[in-house]
Design goal:
heterotrimer, A mainly alpha, B alpha/beta, C alpha+beta, A: mainly alpha, Cyclin A, domain 1, C: SH3 type barrels, elongated
């Protein structure tokens, strides 16, 4: 699809921001997202093309204003919902439970 | 167990990731110790030193270099590196007249077995957009100024083939051992946004 | 599908999952051929970037037969030859572009026509 992910040749994206001492993961949730994606992928529940297409369908503004592993989270969530492996209701319910438990 | 490091207001992203992990574990789609093993593998054990070993070998063994350029996957496997996001490797050689640079304009495809996980800049809009339209400008931002006669080849990783640049061996390194050469080769030289410097 | 366990991780990591397909599919092109990228604009998944569509390049190498992502994303397998195609900068970006670089794009058979 002609989404904003198709960036070759675009201009105005700003300077290339290089962090010479960068870590692979900046937050714990990024680690978990990375591991989760690979583990579910290894289980054969989606293929790489389905996953990429799900990211491409994130919505332009969402895509441009979120971080790399947030893209993965969006993509994986979308494919799991579309394949009926998870439902929106159970995700929301679990988030509510976990949110309460954190205080 | 949910981490209680955060205040009652965990961000939506953090909550959602935790929720997904919790649900997937419950449904036996993921196993926590496998996740930890995957994370540890890519955070601590697979990185650009792998690629540097490939480069140093190619610099010191001309028959290996030939094999590497003909069959990147096979030659890289000879050194024990292979697998996820590097199943089909192509190695492209820098010469005095050709400089190679690798990008994935559409997402972030990168040769994990030899370079580990990609840096944030490689996955970000500025590099992805500019590498294919202004490679000389991008290189300048990285502090690389090529001679006017050098042709730049930008490889857009649109498929599952993964590219690694074989940088030129700098002059003045003839006396160095293979191990010493490995130390000279940093990640960006194998992406194509740096040159290898003699010590 | 069995869940991935810790002891399976090393094997998974070192084996991966190649998209190469062992199928007897004839290539439409060979290295040296001049080819033109099709002007397709699918709403579904494609790995043919917009900046290449309609432009003419030269096949640099034939990587062999691979999974075709446009189909794979929707359960329609159509493995075919994958090529690296070299495009001159001026061809992609116009006569004002600098003429000292080329862009090599991996492209499947279905993305290409013989150049006129």
């Amino acid at each position: 699809m002609n989404g904003v992910h198709d960036m070759g040749g675009m201009q105005g994206m700003g300077a290339i921001d290089v962090d010479p001492n960068e870590l692979s993961f900046h937050e714990d949730w990024e680690r978990q997202m990375f591991g989760m994606f690979l583990a579910v992928f290894a289980g054969g529940h989606y293929n790489i093309d389905e996953f990429r297409h799900a990211i491409e369908r994130m919505g332009a503004t969402n895509y441009l204003t979120t971080s790399y592993y947030e893209h993965w989270m969006n993509g994986m969530q979308t494919v799991l919902l579309e394949k009926g492996i998870l439902t929106e209701e159970e995700i929301s319910a679990r988030m509510a439970e976990l949110g309460k438990g954190a205080s | 167990m949910a981490s209680h490091k955060h205040t009652a207001e965990m961000s939506d992203t953090v909550l959602r990731v935790k929720a997904l992990e919790s649900l997937l574990a419950e449904k036996d789609l993921i196993d926590a110790s496998a996740l930890n093993e995957l994370i540890d593998t890519y955070e601590n054990r697979i990185g650009p030193r792998n690629g540097a070993q490939v480069v140093a070998r190619a610099w010191t063994d001309s028959e290996y270099k030939k094999r590497l350029l003909e069959d990147g996957t096979g030659a890289i496997l000879e050194l024990g590196f292979s697998g996820v996001q590097g199943e089909d490797m192509v190695v492209i050689e820098n010469t005095p007249t050709v400089h190679n640079m690798v990008v994935c304009t559409l997402c972030s495809c990168y040769p994990w077995p030899v370079l580990g996980l990609p840096p944030v800049w490689y996955k970000s809009a500025p590099y992805r957009s500019r590498a294919v339209i202004d490679p000389r400008g991008v290189l300048k931002e990285f502090g690389v100024e090529l001679d006017a006669g050098v042709e730049i080849r930008v490889w857009d990783s649109t498929a599952e083939t993964r590219y690694m640049v074989l940088p030129m061996r700098p002059a003045g390194t003839e006396g160095l051992s293979e191990d010493e050469l490995v130390d000279l080769v940093h990640r960006d030289a194998m992406i194509g946004t740096a040159i290898v410097m003699a010590p | 599908m069995p869940v991935l366990t810790k002891d399976m991780v090393a094997g998974l990591v070192s084996t991966g999952a190649s998209a190469r397909v062992d199928a007897d599919v004839a290539p439409s092109f060979k290295p040296g051929d001049r080819v033109t990228a099709r002007n397709i604009n699918p709403v579904g998944h494609t790995r043919l970037p917009r900046y290449v569509r309609g432009h003419t390049g030269i096949v640099d190498r034939d990587h062999g037969v691979f999974v075709f992502p446009d189909g794979s994303a929707v359960g329609k397998d159509k493995p075919q030859h994958l090529y690296s195609v070299a495009f001159d900068a001026v061809e992609l970006w116009g006569p004002e572009a600098s003429d000292d670089f080329k862009v090599y794009v991996d492209m499947w058979d279905d993305y290409l026509d013989p150049a006129k």
